[in-house]
């Protein structure tokens, strides 16, 4: 019995087909009945017999053409019902046309059964057919979401949904599918005055967002869902604080939606609001169609794929369905963890994602990878990035950030990569650290390869661009994880300087702008992302303490430790001495870099660095710094 009741595509097809045959017969019978005013003297069956095969054949054919037998019964939507409507209307139109007289010589003795039929029969038949066939398709969903939903015991938390747009509507639909077991919607809030007072799936839009605290207390609200993905951190923080002060402990929000091929929202996609969302979340608008054209169906490689930036690049690239995605990283554990995440988010891409362990400095390994997978686009995010650590290990910074970039850029040129995008940093501007100076040299390397290929004859050469941005919240080694760890142990929170300023942006937003910049570069540019307004690290720490329900300086102390080696008090996000020019995107600029090296210039420079790196002399780290001062303009140590 269980096997018999288990739904399968074959059983669904048989159900729909048999139901359609029955309803087509019933519709035709009712149309004759209405046409003859329910007269008992008419033999309706005899009238139907000659034309019924035509009605069945034409209608079943067009239902099949319009995918009437491929839709899922449980999730029938507006587009499916539109297809049913089109199939029924076209069917009856074809049958109606066939009822018109056709001039045929009498000696052929041919008579069409439909000829001369009253046109009203076809119109009435179409109405009944649409009602019955469409009703059968939507019946299961109506039962599960409306009839059974109203009968069910609503055990979920009383919930307000902030945002009465498409996202809020999808959240409501999924609540109904889940029988309100987790959340029971009491109402929606929206700033669009045209929506206030209207009902969406039976749930009323109660008022504006500014009335949140009042409506929470008036309706005994236990949970709040923020269904406005475009909110920046300031507006998000206002709503979050209002809900918290009103006593709501469960606050969820809709994160950025990466799978643009399937942009549905459901309750499982909801996340708790993270600290970085309340501090650095910005409203970013990018040209998704342009990014889609750039990435879809392409073979793409991401180095440093397991890192904070690299893994986010991978996640967003997966949303645009590349033909092949090569994830290259030296850390096999991070690759493994990333693989588990991608399998959950993008199971349909599992056969297109390649996990490759390797070192960007290993030219032989790079040759193997480029030969095997032929990537057309390369995102180079592999780098040593921690400023104090690289001050202690300058030779390693040179090996990875300079020689690794050179090896990868050369492989890209040799194997005909179309575009090479290097992730740079604001610390490359007037660098005061080894890390910043080595990343500035990496920018020079990319520009040198671009200059060398720009005059190349015959075919397109690789285009090299660099994208420079500041601190991203929540990345490994950034200030937020450090503060959270210190809070877990009761403080104090350590801050290097009371007046230290930093630009902040969350990782998803920064990477969205990286993808946007990658579509814009013609080659040789250093793009600079507008990271918003700089904020004091001290203010970030104080906000973090308050978000944990504690009082700064009372419950948690602060300790000022002084600037670390290579650290700046103020980050210079733009190249101050040369400036920037605007691009077609409001948050992306192009740095004016007059300083550049050719590949011929780089040969002796790299030879100098190679000698210093390989030297066993105890003074060789200082020799590396001396070389950085020599070849990186404005580098002062």
From TrEMBL:
Gene3D superfamilies hit by this protein: NAD(P)-binding Rossmann-like Domain
Pfam families: CoA_binding_3, Polysacc_synt_2
Domain Polysaccharide biosynthesis protein CapD-like: 300-592
Domain of life: Bacteria
Signal peptide extent: none
TM spans (from-to): 12-32, 52-69, 81-101
CDD domains noted in UniProt: UDP_invert_4-6DH_SDR_e (cd05237)
Keywords, sorted A to Z: Lyase, Membrane, Oxidoreductase, Transmembrane, Transmembrane helix
Enzyme Commission number(s) of this protein: 1.1.1.-, 4.2.1.-
GO terms for MF: lyase activity; oxidoreductase activity
Family: Belongs to the polysaccharide synthase family.
Protein name: UDP-N-acetylglucosamine 4,6-dehydratase / UDP-D-quinovosamine 4-dehydrogenase
